[in-house]
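FAQ
Q: What does a multi-component entry look like?
A: The components come first, one per line:
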Amino acid sequence: MSKSREETGQSSDLVCATRRPISRKNFFKFSGLSAASFMALSMYGCQDSGLGVLDNKSGGNNGSTDKNADVVKLGAGDIGILNFAYALEQLEAAYYIQVLENPYHNMSSDEGRILEALREHEVAHADFYKAALGDNAIRGLEVDFSSVDFDDCASVLNTAQVFEDLGVSAYNGAGQLLEDTELLLVAGKIVSVEARHAAAIRDLLKPRTGFFAGDDVIDENGLDVVNTPNDVLAAASAFIVDEIDASELPQPNN
Amino acid sequence: MSFLKLLDEFNLETSNKEESERFFSRKDALAKMSNYSKNFALAALPFGAIAAFSKPANAQSTEDVVGVLNFALTLELLEAEYYNMGCEIGIIPDEDRAIFNVIQKHENAHVIFLQDTINSLGGTPIEKPEFDFTASGTFDPFNQYPQYLALSQAFEDTGVRAYKGQAGNVQSSDQILTAALRIHSVEARHAAEVRRLRTMRGLDDIEAWITGDNRGSLPEQAQAVYNGEANTTHAGVDATTVTDISDEAVTEAWDEPLTMEEVNAIASLFIVPAQ
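Then the predicted structure of the entire assembly, as tokens:
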């Protein structure tokens, strides 16, 4: 059961052409999808360019025949919050899978390594939620990244920043809605990794500046960005085809 | 029994003794089952099981919460002074100033925020301890920039784990929990940036996130900052068994908490005992 990065086909030297014109020779390494990413792709990824078709084979809990036509119900209580988190992790996982399936041509080795790690982390998060929720897990979501230009570094990294900051804000807002202390801890274990992601992506966009924790996300008290589930879903809905019903989610008091 | 049913049955506001006894015996049975068939046991079971008994102690007193906030304040005072001194002494080269100016600003804001919050709860914010960032002569961070960066990383990664470990202890207050979470993720951003900076400067080969319990090139004394980070079991689910992602990457995808005692043991290296 112990899986090393090499065994799962994740090579740590996976690099593509750097935009500093030194090692374009590595570009073609990216053309081979790793075993793990292939697996993940079949679970979360998208086919065709941008419009993914994603049919979760085991997640449906409503017994409906025409799943894609159905509203995705997150549910109530802690399950609802976990499904909310699961939806976001699916979105992120699908995004990085697609980013690395079609890497922009001038991806630096630093960018490639980071984006690959983010894909691994988000897939691991999504797999975890799916397993933990069991029969209560929402189905695999159909995503729509048609607004992203996957050939363009800025488009890809800016979208990654949006997702990571959104993820941080989502977990920060959802913590108080969880009843269960153990689940609160799990959320805490994940949100700090999302924050590390956000910082790393921001550092790629504006290296060695204060942007990793910029004033656009951190307020004058030094507090990070926070959003209610409804606000997060409103933002995420631009990338999710399915209609999501969050009406049963617990709501913040303040 | 499904996860949902378990949750429905036990996660209600019930402190019914009979019910909880019934539950715990079932939990034992589940634990045994998963011992016998580790890879086979459905992950949903332990998750639901945990949801059933760890309902927050809603009896967190204001005193308890103030205690947690003063614990956090101690760390923020330590960090704020560290960055205030670093910026003042001029150990930080120009090309890294923008990063540390932001970190310094946040830690000082956290100090004020926590002091205000403690006051608003009717508590008394602790006085700033006397800090010794050489840890009795072990380190020389204000003359050796690589050491300055190393300690910065250790402080930030410790801060992340410290807040995480206390989330459950302030859960009874939505506002304080949310504020603590929002500080927590800022500390994580700091940690990520300093980690990247150290690697960028050729001082280490670590990423923004923590792989296993690897401290990289930090000195041995810093291992306590990373012990336990290799854990992959969360809410009873071993995350490595439900994914094709490598174990290494799975360890990176979750950060781990430290208890107050563990954090104090680390911080006390840098605090001069009060006379």
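Q: Is there any commentary attached?
A: Sometimes. For this entry: The helical segments of chain A are 35-44, 77-101, 109-133, 153-174, 181-205, 229-236.
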